[in-house]
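Extended Data, record RINT1 protein
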Amino acid sequence: VNKPEWYLTQVLMWIGNHSKFLDDKIQPILDKAGSSVNAGLEFSRALVMLILEKLAADIPCLLYDDTLFCHLVDEVLLFERELYSVHGYLSSLPSCMHILSEESCFQRWLTVEKKFALQKMDSMLSSEAAWISQYKDITDVDEMKVPDCAETFMTLLLVITDRYKNLPTASRKLQFLGLQKELVDDFRIRLTQVMKEETRASLGFRYCAILNAVNYIATVLADWADNV
């Protein structure tokens, strides 16, 4: 159970290795018979069904081991990305995201996603470079003077979006959006706490960095407003 990448990679190799044979030899037979079946997609679908069976058996065994569960989710997301982008799999066919969307698994995914996001926020705000812009020496890039912690936080939100965007239902996506809103509010509270420590030096370096962070986050969120 600690090596899901073994069977996920194996299936991707089978799909890749058989694609030419299926397209050149099997598809013409189906076409000649007047069948609407796509040989390559049907082959891929059957192998994905095997993966769904394997996942359904494995997930209960590692549901409460954060490290193993996170590793499984990461590997499944990588598998899905390659399946769609490289092998032309269709969203209308069964996929691993349906397994990850099942209640017990999904709630666990949300829980660990939040846990690791909060840990990441702890480390980014305690970093020595938290309030320094990594582009401070490049004038034309650094118009907003964004401190490192704000940029890292928005990257964190973007990565979370990228992880859940292929979930099959809007209701599951909205639950992840709810998590992102919680994280934004948590980050706001953390910024407020740091700001209160800096009120005596309102023109000081860190106070200005906090204002720049807030401005940057508000601007990026406004840019994301058109993303359904």
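Summary. The chain has eight helices and no strands.
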